[in-house]
Write a structure and sequence with these properties.
Blueprint lengths: L1 H24 L9 E8 L1 H5 L11 E9 L6 E3 L6 E4 L3 E6 L2 E5 L5 E2 L5 E2 L5 E7 L5 E8 L14 E7 L22 E8 L5 E10 L5 E8 L13 E6 L21 E2 L5 E3 L5 E3 L5 E3 L9 E4 L11 E7 L7 E6 L4 E6 L4 E7 L1 E3 L7 E4 L2 E3 L8 E3 L8 E4 L1 E3 L5 H35 L1
Parallel strand pairs: 11-20
Antiparallel strand pairs: 1-2, 3-30, 4-29, 5-6, 5-9, 5-25, 6-27, 7-8, 9-10, 9-24, 11-21, 12-13, 13-14, 14-15, 16-17, 17-20, 18-19, 22-23, 23-24, 25-28, 26-27
Helix pairs in contact: 1-3
């Protein structure tokens, strides 16, 4: 019996050495989770189902389990766009030829068709984007990077915050002439875009009126009348102000304005007859074949003020843009994948999905730092990152192995000592047996 006890100890020590060696071998494996060998003593009487009694000696040791430690590893930045790490609970969902596997290793690449894959060719799963540009939640698909150019967007809305100096006086030069700086008090330009992505310059000039608290805004596009490219006559609109310096919208009558932009019901301006133009080969301005936004161009100047400070534009925005080529990718903490374009625009092209399980120890290792669902693990809970108990995504980063090398080296020494001690048990038992034989 003593030989068997020692032998079981050798088996256990060897198992511990194998587990420790495997951990050490994977100290640099991305997303690797270390394991530990768990042992239990055994009694021959308990196997037969009888009472062990007080004087019964155990029959050795057995391996109860090899458990994986799903503690997180350090997250280190890599600068690679498709590298991802999960900060918190969860696994990346991969499609391995129709079979789902789960991993914490987030080193991903783009294949020749634009699909996001790992080194073994498994596809990263997530949620696609619908025709309306919104994420289609709940339907997993293989994530794919759309490399096509971004379609131009004609300008439909412009928003400006402008202050006009209340201490300014009416210009001495009249009438207004864009070429004569003495005929206006303040000017600035804003780029706007037509349906083909051509950029045009919206010119705005502000002239202080002789009447107090009143200004005239003159508007051209590319220095031409927006509705008639053959004319340089600008559109003219009045900007009345209250005594407190804010825009007096009550004094603005909604509807068409002769020689100016239409005033909408909300007292913003609408440019609904812009004809995009350019110079032809003969140097004559004519329509360029593109169109303006079909809904017109809305100009929001409700934030315009007249305070005793230098005339200045404090903020402005417009929603048009030219076509753009894909220049990069970024991934935010909620797993949204953004395509970055050369025109400065970003576009959502998908969302990474992650999964979690009720019993992580029940997952079945399949190699390649991956696991599969099992009966013991329970079914996966799959959702968007940073929701519920699911962790966040760290883009441009990878999760290191969680192996504690110092601790593993200590375990290596302990396993070696255990092996030697059990071998000594067998050696001692052999010596005793020889002594008994010699006595006979």
């Amino acid at each position: 019996m003593s030989f068997n006890i020692g032998l079981s100890g050798l088996y256990a020590a060897n198992k511990a050495l194998n587990v420790t060696g495997n951990n050490i071998a994977n100290v640099a494996t991305t997303g690797f989770k270390s394991s530990r060998a768990e042992f239990a003593d055994q009694y021959s009487n308990s196997i037969r189902g009888t009472s062990a009694g007080k004087n019964v000696v155990g029959t050795g040791v057995k391996t109860a389990a090899v458990s994986q430690m799903f503690t997180p590893g350090n997250i280190n930045g890599t600068g690679q766009a498709l590298d991802m790490a999960i900060d918190g609970n969860g696994f990346f969902v991969m499609n391995d030829n129709g079979s789902k596997i789960y991993t914490r290793a987030g080193a991903f690449y783009s294949d020749k068709q634009g699909y996001v894959v790992n080194a073994s060719g498994s596809n990263l799963q997530g949620y696609a984007v619908g025709p309306d540009g919104k994420i289609i939640q709940g339907v997993l698909t293989n994530l794919q990077i759309d490399t096509s150019n971004l379609t131009p967007n004609p300008t439909g809305k412009i928003s400006e915050n402008v202050n006009l100096n209340s201490s300014a006086t009416a210009p001495a030069v009249t009438p207004f002439d864009p070429a004569n700086t003495g005929s206006y008090n303040y000017t600035f330009n804003t780029d706007v875009y037509d349906s083909q992505g051509n950029a045009h310059q919206l010119n705005q000039y502000f002239v202080k009126d002789a009447a107090s608290n009143s200004w005239t805004m003159y508007t051209t596009i590319d220095g031409r009348n927006p509705a008639d490219p053959t004319s340089t006559t600008p559109l003219a609109n009045k900007l009345p102000f209250k005594s407190d310096g804010t825009l007096d919208t009550a004094a603005m009558t909604a509807g068409p304005v002769a020689g100016g932009m239409t005033i909408a019901a909300d007292k913003t301006f609408t440019l609904d007859n812009w004809i995009p133009a350019q110079k032809n080969a003969a140097g004559v301005w004519s329509p360029n074949g593109a169109t303006a936004n079909l809904a017109g161009v809305n100009l929001d100047m409700l934030g315009t003020t007249q305070y005793n400070a230098a005339s200045a534009t404090t903020a402005k925005s417009q929603d048009g843009f030219a076509t753009g080529e894909l220049s990069g990718l970024t991934i935010d903490q909620s797993g949204l994948m953004f395509a970055n374009f050369t025109n400065g625009q970003d576009k959502v092209i998908g969302q990474v999905a992650i999964a979690n399980f009720a019993n992580l120890q029940g997952l079945t290792p399949v190699g390649g730092t991956s696991w599969k669902e099992s009966y013991a693990s329970g079914v996966p809970v799959i959702g968007a990152p940073d929701t519920g108990t699911l962790g966040q995504i760290s883009g441009g980063a990878l999760e290191d192995s969680n192996v504690d090398l110092t601790g593993e080296l200590v375990n290596l020494i302990k396993a070696q000592s255990n092996y030697q001690a059990n071998a000594k048990t067998i050696s001692t038992e052999s010596t005793i047996m020889q002594t008994i034989i010699q006595m006979t």
